[in-house]
């Protein structure tokens, strides 16, 4: 059996490491070896469990003192009982939010009440914007029914301040201790108080408007500026504007921007793409086309004489602002040949007269196909 590694070595810290240094080291290593990031990797699974065990002991002052004195040969045996450390289930979200602390703080009992970090749910809203609004980085206003502290009880959930009482079950600690005998040892487990849901307080007479929840739905107006070069699906966050929760932190509000389709532009990052239908005379003789543009200035498109269908023209610097960095994208115009759906007898006669000058003789079709293929490949 492999010799058990030193806990300080496992976390990569010195024996004089502070609580903050221990927490930082654990968080970094736990993310690195988490099973969700390393599926079907037995080595990472072992390292993840080893890191958990080291932090469980060193983050507890009493257990750390015991370990510093005796190492892994503590007179009382393993602090986790005869079966040793079995690992705990920690999700990746807890590693980012700090929710893992309560898991370890109750592992050996004692310690008094800790902050469970209760937090309301995040809320997602969708809001449609235009290319013009993105280009101008416009300020938008959104009205929505959002969760907020109850105006009647100021978010306490109680009818009056005197109706908020200390929980008699946990004595206001929010946590209860349960003892379990494991062989010759007594192990203490700490969990949320079932009567007050870990809050340490109970409400005798709840608020009649919010029925004790401490929250209500309220019409709110939100103002925000569209970020430079925002793209479809971008989410903007407003901290603390999500679900209000009694005796906890409110969640966040996310506004997802959805870009309304433009009349003729398609978007490719900062570049704008459009098709421009032209008649045969305009392609042969050349022309100039003017269109309204998202920047408020006319978009002038100069089509050269002899242009061909499927050719592209590029107007530099008239696209969307770049998401990061300076400058703007381009406008790319794809030329399309406009063919009338119906023609009258007079036009049909005119076209027949033009065949000798503009038509392609049947005997030249094969050579024309070859030349087209060569031009395309070159």
Mind explaining what this structure looks like?
The protein is of the alpha+beta class and 378 residues long. It contains ten helices and 15 strands. It has helices at residues 7-11, 19-33, 42-58, 61-70, 92-97, 101-105, 131-135, 280-285, 345-358, 365-377; strands at 123-129, 139-149, 164-166, 175-182, 185-192, 201-203, 215-225, 235-238, 253-259, 266-268, 271-278, 287-291, 299-303, 312-315, 331-337. The strands form six sheets. The protein has a four-stranded mixed sheet with strand order 10-11-15-14. Helix 2 (19-33) runs antiparallel to helix 3. It is elongated and about 110 Å long. The two termini are 69 Å apart. Residues 109-116 have low confidence and may be disordered.
Mind summarizing the main beta sheet? Answer: 4 strands, mixed
Read across the widest sheet, the strand sequence of neighbours is: 10-11-15-14
User: What is the overall shape?
Assistant: elongated
If you compute it from the alpha carbons, what radius of gyration comes out, rounded to the nearest whole angstrom?
Answer: 35 Å
Low-confidence stretches: 109-116
Number of helices: 10
Global structural class: alpha+beta
Average pLDDT for all residues? 83
**Count of extended strands:** 15
Span from first to last CA? 69 Å
Q: Assess the beta-strand content as a share of residues.
A: 15-25%
Helix content: 25-40%
């Amino acid at each position: 059996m492999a010799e058990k590694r030193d806990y300080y070595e496992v976390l990569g810290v010195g024996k004089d490491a502070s609580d903050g240094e221990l927490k930082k080291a654990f968080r970094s290593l736990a993310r690195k070896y988490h099973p969700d990031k390393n599926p079907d990797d037995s080595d990472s699974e072992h390292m993840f469990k080893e890191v958990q065990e080291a932090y469980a002991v060193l983050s507890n002052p009493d257990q750390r003192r015991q370990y510093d004195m005796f190492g892994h040969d503590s007179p009382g045996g393993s602090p986790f009982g005869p079966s040793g450390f079995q690992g705990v289930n920690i999700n990746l979200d807890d590693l980012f939010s700090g929710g893992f602390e309560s898991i370890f703080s109750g592992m050996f009992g004692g310690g008094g009440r800790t902050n469970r970090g209760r937090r309301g749910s995040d809320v997602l809203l969708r809001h449609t914007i235009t290319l013009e609004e993105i280009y101008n980085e416009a300020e938008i206003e959104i009205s929505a029914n959002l969760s907020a502290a109850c105006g009647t009880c100021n978010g306490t959930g109680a009818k009056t301040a005197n109706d908020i009482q200390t929980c008699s079950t946990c004595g206001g600690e929010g946590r209860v201790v349960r003892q379990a005998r494991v062989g010759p040892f007594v192990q203490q487990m700490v969990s949320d108080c079932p009567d007050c849901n870990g809050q340490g307080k109970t409400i005798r007479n709840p608020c009649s408007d919010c029925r004790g929840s401490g929250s209500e739905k309220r019409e709110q107006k939100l103002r925000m500026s569209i970020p430079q070069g925002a793209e479809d699906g971008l989410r903007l966050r407003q901290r603390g504007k999500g679900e209000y929760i009694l005796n906890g932190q409110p969640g966040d509000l996310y506004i997802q921007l959805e870009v309304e389709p433009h009349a003729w532009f398609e978007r490719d990052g900062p570049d704008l793409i459009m098709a421009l239908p032209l008649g045969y005379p305009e392609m042969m003789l050349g022309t100039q086309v003017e269109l309204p543009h998202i920047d408020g200035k006319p978009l002038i498109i100069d089509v050269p004489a002899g242009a061909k269908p499927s050719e592209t023209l590029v107007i530099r610097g008239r696209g969307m602002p770049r998401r990061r960095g300076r400058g703007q994208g381009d406008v790319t115009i794809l030329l399309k040949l406009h063919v009338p759906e119906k023609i009258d007898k007079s036009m049909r006669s005119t076209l027949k007269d033009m065949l000798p000058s503009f038509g392609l003789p049947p005997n030249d079709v094969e050579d024309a196909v070859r030349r087209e293929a060569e031009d395309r490949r070159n």
